[in-house]
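Message: Just now I want nothing more than another pair of eyes on a protein record. I am handing you a single protein, as its sequence and its fold in token form. As I understand it, each token names a local backbone shape. Take your time, and here it is.
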Amino acid sequence: MEFIDNEAALTQLCRDLRGCSWLAIDTEFARTKTYYPELCLVQLANKERTVLIDPLAIDNLDALYGLLYASSITKVFHSARQDLELFFHSKGRVPLPLFDTQLAAAMLGHNEQIAYAALVRALLNVELEKSQTRTNWKRRPLSKRQLEYAADDVVYLVKLYEILRSSLDESGQLPQLNESSQALAEPGLYAPDPMCMWKKIKAARHLKGSSLRVLKQLAAWRELTARKENRPRRWLLPDHSLIEMARTLPESLDDLSRVKDMSGRVLRSYGAVLLASIAEHK
């Protein structure tokens, strides 16, 4: 296992790996205080090397992105969507071509949502360490156990890829997997339409008429504002606050201040905007 935390070593690594036909990839990230996930660690592996890259210690990641976005290299992930979201928000697109071992396993008869550890157990008879599943990947220095745990996420991914790709090739299903993997490149997966965000609010199904129209606008406003401020949606306004506003249709700042969990900051900064939106769509 190699650990890279400087630009010179990263540049050399990417030169060394540029001729690979495929790479197993995983990421560790944090998303507790931000809208966008923060990249904290990148794990790469092939049959010869296992490398952990510390993006928090390296200012310029251009060499890494150049490697990951090379069209000659198949990027192997397990349950790729969250990893791909990181790259999409960095570059506006996902790295292609892809091979998702979760999709591949499902085509071969495994559970559609099979977890990485479960697939490793099923195909390799290896029980993975689970102690670091809730670890803080932003904290430095990373411990030996954290690094070993992170490395395992690509060490066995290499082996899974070889087994699954061979099985799909033999069964003639590889083109079908390539088609399914292509769907993971759709921008709508990573930048959903703000006007559709109300559908994620469970209580929305109980609203009709003007209340539903207002909720749609409020949910869109929250989504766009969360992206702009890079803050979690719930830190602006939780779902139940949007529902209460849509039901009661407040007409003044005093009315808004009575909405449960309406923060003073949001009231001061956006109160007038919220009232104008409610008045326009009710």
Q: What stands out?
A: The longest strand covers residues 22-30.
